[in-house]
Amino acid sequence: GPVSKSDRKRVNAVVYELMGITQSERCLIEDFVQVQALMIKGKVEKDAVRSPEEEEVSAYLETLRGQLDDYMEDAAQPASHQITAVCDHRTAMIEIVLCEGKPAEPVVRKANKTEADELKKTRARLLKKHRQWIYFDRNLRLYNKGRLYLFKPLQRIQWTRRQAILDADELIAEALGSSVD
Predict the structure, then answer these.
(1) Is the pTM of this model over 0.85?
(2) Which of 45, 88, 160, 172 could disulfide-link 31, Cβ–Cβ 3.0 to 4.6 Å?
(3) SS3 of the chain: helix, strand, coil, percent, to 5
(4) Around 34, how many Cα atoms within 13 Å sit in the side-chain half-sphere?
(5) In angstroms, rounded to a whole number, what is the distance separating the alpha carbons of residues 71 and 67?
């Protein structure tokens, strides 16, 4: 008969262990199979562009923070990242702040009226400039006084652990590129 979801998870865990696949690589594989594969051949699967569940947003933020913090472990002065996501019903603005000491849990909260208005204005400007932004442009990134802001559509495909790893890699590469200049 068909293999149960829990049996598949156990088999995958054994295979990952035997092959020496890291936690980050597991996230990349699992999220590709479960989400990104839905988008192959230009087919937009509803489940890939639906709003992310609360636990998916939390998993994205924890993975993003973990990747950024892991990178900082090798720095001359180790530091951690405080991450806050402010969401309305269609988009989120993520604030990333480098801080000393033990990392705090990422925070997710609903936008207040002023923040919701700003998110709406930013979304409107992006859509006016790039009609297809909602599907093709990963993030809008803004840097301000040592803080980084990521503006992301609230679509599941943008909030996977895989995407968090890719976003962290881009942020690290940008930081390395700007420090070389």
Answers:
(1) no
(2) 160
(3) 55, 20, 25
(4) 16
(5) 6
Measure the CA–CA gap between 98 and 148, rounded to whole angstroms. 9
- Mean model confidence pLDDT for the chain: 78
Residues 110/92, Cβ–Cβ less than 8 Å: no
pLDDT for position 61: 95
Which of 14-23, 35-44, 122-131, 162-171: highest mean pLDDT?
Answer: 162-171
The owner of tokens 């849990």 is 105
Please compute the mean of the pLDDT values over residues 53-65 and round it to a whole number: 93
pLDDT band at 131 (very low <50, low <70, confident <90, very high): low
What angle do the packed helices 23-34 and 5-19 form, to 10 degrees?
A: 140
CA distance linking residue 88 with residue 111, whole number of Å: 5
Cite the DSSP H helix spans in 74-160: 113-129, 133-136
**pLDDT (0 to 100) of residue 27:** 65
For residue 159, the 8-state DSSP code is S
Q: Rounded to 10 degrees, what is the CA torsion of 170, 41, 158, 112?
A: 130
